[in-house]
Amino acid sequence: MLTCTAVRERISAFLDGELSAERAEAVRGHLATCAQCAAWHAELAATDRLLDRAGAIAPADDFTAAVLARVRARRAESAAARLRRAIARPWPRWAVAASLAAAIAIGSGAAWLTGPGAPPPSETAVIARQFGLEAFEDLPAGSVEGAVVDVACALGGEGR
Amino acid sequence: MDRVRAGDEQAFVALVERHRERALNIAYRYLGDRAAAEDLAQEAFVRVYERRASFRPGSEFTPWFHRILTNLCLDRLRRHDRRDDHLELLTEEDGQPEARTPEAISPPREAERGELARRVRAALMSLPERQRLAVILQHYEGLSYDAIAAALGCSRGTVDGLLSRARASLRDRLQEFLED
Q1: Does B53 reside within a domain?
Q2: Contact map slice: B 73-112 vs A, CB within 8 A
Q3: Which of A15, A16, A19, A62 is best to mutate for the B interface (most B CBs within 10 A)?
Q4: Same domain, B132 and B80
Q5: Do B161 and B81 share a domain, yes or no?
Q6: In this structure, are B80 and B119 located in the same domain?
Q7: Is residue B98 part of a domain?
Q8: Do A47 and B144 touch (CB under 8 A)?
Q9: Could you tell me the pTM of the whole model?
Q10: Is-contact A128 A137, C-beta < 8 A?
Q11: Residues 6+ apart with CB under 8 A from A17
């Protein structure tokens, strides 16, 4: 036969149907013979019913749209962060050289397209803009590749 | 969820529509503030999408979602410590939850219902966080003790203890409303 203390320890699980059949039967048996524990059980059951009076709320009409907007914004942030990390990474020398060659070719072509009157951008300016390094446009043109590599190394660590 | 894992946006939309009211009310009963609950519930779905690759195919979505929600709930209150703010908010007249089954009742009865709802929500908010979550998951979501334990990351025995203490506290706070 369970004591009142043991029953009170089990009352919550009993109310939730979480006791084994045997233990539930033991609790039931005690409640049938103990007025105090039966009253406690009744009060807890009534408290449970009161919880149903707390009400519920409905989602706003634009809830789903708001979720989708957040998902898309988060994806855009991730893509931007990946790009920033990629730019900050030190570039291997062969990649820098290839970019330099492409930038010079494009810069030369662009100068040709703008007409004979337009002063062509310097090689340094073309390469600096390629890497977003406008602050270094006044570097000597004699060692452009080395200058860009030095800057890339300074930004991201050792060059390769 | 398999289609969501494959990046199917329409499947994700359907998932949100199906579970949004549940998510919102778990958050609302935990935080006591509608705007915060909308924010948390939306964030839960964003995490579902971001972590879709970690969802095990063939397993049930709801327990996994409950874990996401409970972690967000616990993190939110730990970060912001808004307990006092919530208790103040619950004294305001705005933001009364809408009844799911509207019925014709007289204004005095409606006022009584509103007051009771407010007091019940206040009693819930007075519980320590984990007791409150346990009550929400057991009473409003109908989860088993094992499922609650999985959501909270604790043992079944701990869940039993949380609910026992919560019930006793709620009974004390709501004693005046208990039926004779």
Answers
A1: yes
A2: 96-100
A3: A16
A4: no
A5: no
A6: no
A7: no
A8: no
A9: 0.68
A10: yes
A11: A24
- Report pLDDT digits (tens) over B67-126: 999 999 988 877 765 554 444 444 343 444 444 434 444 566 777 778 898 999 999 999
Please answer yes or no on whether B28 and A57 come within 8 Å at the CB atom: yes
Q: Which of B142, B124, B4, B9 is nearest to B73 (CA)?
A: B124
Q: Are residues B45 and B125 in the same domain?
A: no
What CATH code is carried by the domain that includes residue B131? 1.10.10.10
Report how far residue B8's alpha carbon sits from residue B166's, in angstroms, rounded to the nearest whole number. 41
Probe site for chain A from B8, B174, B180 (most A CB atoms < 10 A): B174
| Count of domains for chain B | 2
Q: How far is CA B33 from CA A15, A124, B83, B84, in A?
A: 29, 58, 11, 12
Q: Say what the ipTM of the complex is.
A: 0.77
Domain finish residue from B88, B120, B138: B88
One domain, residues B114 and B70 = no
Q: Spell out which residues of chain B touch residue A68, defining contact as CB-CB under 8 Å.
A: 9, 13
d(CA A66, CA B23): 14
Q: Which residues of B, range 111-130, sit inside 8 Å of A by Cβ?
A: 113, 116-117, 120-121, 124
Give the minimum alpha-carbon distance from B127 to chain A in angstroms, rounded to a whole number.
13
B111 and B180 part of one domain: yes
> What whole-number distance in Å separates Cα of residue A118 and Cα of residue A122?
12
Range scoring the smallest mean pLDDT among A60-69, A147-156, B122-131, B153-162: A147-156
- Closest by alpha carbon to B67, among B86, B51, B80? B51
Residue pLDDT, tens place only, B20-77: 999 999 999 999 899 999 999 999 999 999 998 888 888 889 989 999 999 999 888 7
Cβ <8 Å between B167 and A44: yes
Check which CATH number belongs to the domain holding B27 and give it.
1.10.1740.10
Asked if residue B72 is part of any domain, the answer here is: yes
Residue B99 included in any domain: no
> Is the domain of B55 the same as that of B109?
no
Distance (Å) from the alpha carbon of A4 to chain B's nearest alpha carbon: 15
